[in-house]
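FORM 12-B: Structure-to-Sequence Request
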């Protein structure tokens, strides 16, 4: 081929190649660039030719380029990477091959470089490195292990950090070394669907064992990559310890909610039963009273006393049921529960016996709480008796009271809202309670004691009193590890004194007109007889509607209203409001088998309400009626 055609061919090759061609002279001034090189730099060919090579790089590039040019002058050809600056200032990452140009006499005339834009490839590599750093620094454990022998090829920092092994130590191990619940056979059976191609990914939960022998639950996501030389498993491991703990907490909260709902249901049942029993006991006790003046022989009088004593014991049981059901009338006041505990100390030491010791840890400056002091004494006494029975050969009973600021509910008692509380804990070193028994300890009549050794109402009463006082109670125990009851009583800013108790005066005769409304026939008959025996004019009705019709009739005048609280069709409170409208200040005495929301709040009698709890005696009824009538005249 003649030289002209050959030169033309070379020129076309240089112009059409995708690689850049850059020629400089001995002074590093550009004498030629092809179209590809101009495109890479973002300049036109005319803008590049005639300019120094060093105009297209930053200071660091100039330093490196000067060294490269020096080597070209020495006749050295090189392949290397270099960063140029485009016209818009962006970096041009390149891979280039540079050769020196010499004249026939060996004089250095410049250099020619063939330049390849590797920016896209570099960005892909940078992205691979970035992703690899994410994998390596991930909090999750990430492993690569071989299919043929299960040996680890790679483990990230999360794996070495969580397990306590170095990467070198892990490379000599297999997943079986950190999964104690698996054998090789069980693990191969587990991953078989993945190996056989039936699934693309496996998810399962297992246990990982650290270098120090401790274990923790994990969730595994496993894939299998096929490659020359054998498959490679890729595993991402998520530590699910916190999730398991949250699930346990949620389950415990659900159990506690179910227990609370069960106790609420039992409480409603117990309250209803106690109400009906109190009606019956009112009739029995009143009948015993009426018979005391009858001509009876000694044997009959003995029988009568036994009936009275049995009815009084039954009344005590119903009172305990009412305490559990939170239907017992209480007389709360602002009180120092720590002082109440101190005052009980001497008595409590006698209760638990000489074999056991009592330790009090009462903090100074306890906040006041709103509660009935008598009932608080009963709570402490019941828990002390319970502890004594759990320590038949002796032990230690510790009662602690302190101020507590709760930001969230403690594990011992979920559902306690944030706030300021006085916390009272009663702990013993006794036999403890089995886990399957703990959910039932507050249920009435539930007891692990032998027949005849207790009613099973002690802890039920404690539960009801604490709840009725606006507090919360929880229990922690285990067999042979003792038991701790923890109570939270909200701090009160109310410094009002306790409502004065109305003392039952000795019944005095009267003559006033009394309207009596009571749906229980036995109680109604007893009340009518008792009041008439005291000289009162009594008109009795079984229902509020019948009483309203009578009160609206011409003869429907009365000086005092006695009404049951719970009656079919209308509550006693609603009836009293309706029948007394427009009658002026007529006194009202409510009678009830348990605390009704219509006249009490949290078991405390509403201001201005007079309540006579059932069961009551004829003398108590007449005394309260007389006191109310006399107060109305004052």
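FORM 12-B RESPONSE
SEQUENCE OUT:
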């Amino acid at each position: 081929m003649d030289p002209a055609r050959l030169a033309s061919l070379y020129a076309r090759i240089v112009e059409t190649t995708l690689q850049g061609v850059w020629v400089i002279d001995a002074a590093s001034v550009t004498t030629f660039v092809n179209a590809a090189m101009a495109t890479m730099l973002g300049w036109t060919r005319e803008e590049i030719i005639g300019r120094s090579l060093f105009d297209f790089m930053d200071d660091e590039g100039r330093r490196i380029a000067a060294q490269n040019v020096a080597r070209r002058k020495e006749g050295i050809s090189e392949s290397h990477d270099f960063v140029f600056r485009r016209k818009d200032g962006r970096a041009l990452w390149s891979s280039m091959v540079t050769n020196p140009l010499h004249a026939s006499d060996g004089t250095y005339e410049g250099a020619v470089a063939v330049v390849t834009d590797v920016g896209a490839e570099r960005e892909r590599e940078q992205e691979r490195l970035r992703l690899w750093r994410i994998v390596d620094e991930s909090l999750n454990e990430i492993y690569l292990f071989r299919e043929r022998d299960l040996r680890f090829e790679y483990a990230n920092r999360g794996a070495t950090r969580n397990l306590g092994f170095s990467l070198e130590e892990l490379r000599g191990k297999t997943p079986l070394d950190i999964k104690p619940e698996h054998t090789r056979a069980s693990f191969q059976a587990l991953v078989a669907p993945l190996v056989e191609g039936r699934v693309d990914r496996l998810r399962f939960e297992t246990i990982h064992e650290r270098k120090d022998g401790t274990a923790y639950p994990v969730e595994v996501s496993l894939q299998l990559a096929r490659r020359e030389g054998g498959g490679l498993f890729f595993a991402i491991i998520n530590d699910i310890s916190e999730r398991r703990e949250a699930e346990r907490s949620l389950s415990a909260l659900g159990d506690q909610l179910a227990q609370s709902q069960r106790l609420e249901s039992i409480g409603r049942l117990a309250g209803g039963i106690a109400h009906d029993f109190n009606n019956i006991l009112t009739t029995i006790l009143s009948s015993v009273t009426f018979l005391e003046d009858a001509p009876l022989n000694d044997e009959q009088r003995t029988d009568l006393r036994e009936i009275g004593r049995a009815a009084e014991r039954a009344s005590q049981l119903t009172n305990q049921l009412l305490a559990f059901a939170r239907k017992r009338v209480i007389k709360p006041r602002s009180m120092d529960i720590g002082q109440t505990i101190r005052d009980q100390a001497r008595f409590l030491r006698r209760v638990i016996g000489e074999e056991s010791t009592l330790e009090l840890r009462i903090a100074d400056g306890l906040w006041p709480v709103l509660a009935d002091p008598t009932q608080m004494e009963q709570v402490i006494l019941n828990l002390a008796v319970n502890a004594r029975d759990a320590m038949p050969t002796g032990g230690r009973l510790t009662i602690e009271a302190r101020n507590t600021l709760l930001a969230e509910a403690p594990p011992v008692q979920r559902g306690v809202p944030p706030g300021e509380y006085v916390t009272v804990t009663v702990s013993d070193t006794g036999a403890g309670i089995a886990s399957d028994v703990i959910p039932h300890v507050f249920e009435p009549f539930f007891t692990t004691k032998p027949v005849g050794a207790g009613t099973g109402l002690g802890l039920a009463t404690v539960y009801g009193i604490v709840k009725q006082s606006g507090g919360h109670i929880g229990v922690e125990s285990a067999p042979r590890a003792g038991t701790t009851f923890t109570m939270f009583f909200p701090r009160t800013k109310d410094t009002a004194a306790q409502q004065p108790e109305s003392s039952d005066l000795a019944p005095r005769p009267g003559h006033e007109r009394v309207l009596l409304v009571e749906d229980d026939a036995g109680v109604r008959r007893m009340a009518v007889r008792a009041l008439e025996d005291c000289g009162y004019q009594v008109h009795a009705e079984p229902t509020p509607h019948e009483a309203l019709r009578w009160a609206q009739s011409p003869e429907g005048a009365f000086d005092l209203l006695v009404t049951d609280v719970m009656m079919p069709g209308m509550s006693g409170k609603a009836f009293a409001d309706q029948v007394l409208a427009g009658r002026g200040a007529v006194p009202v005495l409510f009678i009830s088998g348990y605390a009704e929301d219509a006249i009490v709040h949290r078991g405390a009698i509403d201001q201005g309400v007079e309540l006579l709890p059932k069961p009551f005696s004829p003398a108590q009824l007449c005394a309260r009626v007389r006191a109310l009538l006399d107060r109305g005249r004052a």
